[in-house]
Amino acid sequence: RATHSAMQCLLLAFILLPGMALGLLEGLYCGKENCYDVLGVTRESSKSEIGKAYRQLARRYHPDLHRGEEAKATAEVQFKQVATAYEILRDEESRTDYDYMLDNPDAYYAHYYRYYRRRVAPKVDVRLVIVVVLTIVSVIQYYSGWQRYDSAIKYFATVPKYRNQALDIARDEIQERIQKKGKNRMSKTDQRDELERIVRRVIAEKMDVKGGYAKPTLWDVLWVQLLICPYTLLAFIVWHAQWLWRHTLMKQPYGREQKLYLIRRHLGMGQHQFEAQEEKQVEEYLQLELWKRDNFAAWKAEQDEEMKKKLAENPRYKAYRRYMKNHGPGRITFED
């Protein structure tokens, strides 16, 4: 049995050795054929000579120029082989890899790596793809911000409090542009549209919308944020270093900005969410001195107690508690 296995190994070696000796591997480049021999050129041939040889062979072996199924099939195989050889030799980097394989027939793994690295590598520069993706995301982010801002202005225009204020501010403009008489009088539809436009414009000019619906700026888009990222990181480090030195080590009193920062942290709010709070509410936080942890804990306990009382008096919450008591924490459907 051992002798039989040894004979099989020798036979396999005799079959594979000629191709390996020439540096030709099945499945790579032109397979067992030499790409230069396929095109009838040498390794010293120029790119133009290789192109000329390819065009001549392509015309000779084009399947459409042959008649009969067998002749077409043979010509198709030869045509594909010529096209493959040309694809390899016309590209300088691919030709360099192929020449390396011919000169270094023993570096099997290097040949496979070089070949498939080029086959599976992206045809487009990855840096260009990243730039395009960041640009698209930035554009979408900017225009979606404008859509959110416009929806906020439209909503405020329907709130009686803000709408009446806008009408009072723009009373003279409304009288001049809408309440015209004679030939220049606007139709009712045009008057209604013009009135809505004026109200929204006044609200946009006078109201400082904050939070997630704030008026977008170019500083908010992803591209700009990435460009100023080093500055932002440096400012973050400097801010925390100053906090540590002034308020932790030197025990200096807090300013308004520091107090609001501590209150926001105690409330667990983000920057945009906290900025969306009404000015009256923020001033109340400051009056209650909620930047102090003990004061905030006492205030939070009062708020939770008031919330419990409101829920206890809420008919819907009472119905929910009865359901949970009778049926348990199961699935609630619309029929319930």
- The secondary-structure element order is HHHHHHHHHHHHHHHHH
| Mass-distribution shape | elongated
Mean pLDDT rating = 82
Supply the number of helical segments. 17
The structure class reads mainly alpha
Number of DSSP strand runs: 0
Taking the alpha carbons of the first and last residues, their distance comes to: 79 Å
Describe this structure in words.
This protein has 336 residues and is mainly α. Helix content is 72%, strand content 0%. It has 17 helices and no strands. Helix 8 (160-169) packs across helix 10. The longest helix has 33 residues, at 126-158.
Strand and helix map with partners:
Elements: H1 2-21, H2 35-39, H3 47-61, H4 69-90, H5 92-103, H6 108-120, H7 126-158, H8 160-169, H9 171-177, H10 188-206, H11 222-227, H12 229-249, H13 256-267, H14 271-275, H15 279-287, H16 293-313, H17 315-327
Helix pairs in contact: 3-4, 4-5, 5-6, 7-10, 8-10
Keywords:
single chain, 336 residues, mainly alpha, disordered C terminus
Question: TL;DR of this structure?
Answer:
With 336 residues, the chain is mainly alpha-helical. Helices cover 72% and strands 0% of the residues. The model is unreliable at 9-22 and 331-336 (pLDDT under 50).
